[in-house]
Each structure stands twice: as C-alpha cells, then as structure tokens.
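User: Can you predict the 3D structure for this chain?
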Amino acid sequence: MEIIERRWQARTLTGGGARFVFHRNGKRIRDFRTAWEGATERAGCPDLLFHDLRRSAVNNLNAVNMPPKVAMQITGHKTMTPYQRYHIVRDDDTRAALSKVDAAVKATRSMTPEPPATAA
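Assistant: Here is the predicted structure, written as structure tokens:
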C-alpha cells in the first residue's frame, strides 16, 4: 500500500499531474517487461513471472478463508472456473486438511460410548 501511495503522490510531481499511478516522467508505461526483469533480478527471484503474483494472491486469500466472491473481486476473476484454476493445492494444504479430519474423527470416537463388554 505504501508503494501505491508513493506512486499516487508522484503523479503530481511530474508537472501537470500524470493520469497514471505507474508512469515514467508522467508518460504511460507501455511495456513493463524490461523493468520487471530488472526488478526480479535485483530481488533475487529472476524466474518470477508477473502472473505468479495473481496465483499467490488467490492462494493467500483462500488460506485466510476469504469468501470466494470477495476474493474474486480482489483478483479480478469474473467466474469461479478460472479462480479455482489459480488455486494450487499444495502438499501442506492436504496435510492440514487431513489433520483436521483426523482430529474430528478422534473427537467423535471419544464421545461415542463403548458398548458393554460381553461375557465369553
């Protein structure tokens, strides 16, 4: 949010005020690929694709149990199909889910009375 705010403020410093939050001397940035490659290189993650950020956003929103309609509003997905395609289920997600099921089964068993012992 701080970056967006700084860029928003920088619009007025260009003389006449740029229409774009991200700009180069008030002029629209038409292709950001070169800048993206430099930024990811400097950040130490040269193979990061810009599109990976959207996938990360979907996974983060799902991790905090964001209602799908709200999450889709944030990510810009119009239907559930592509939104679900972006949600990558990781091994950690599967382990956590199975752990919850295991705990629920154990809790249910502890509440079920044992049948009376029968004499043999």
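The mean pLDDT is 85. Residues 91-111 form the longest helix (21 residues).
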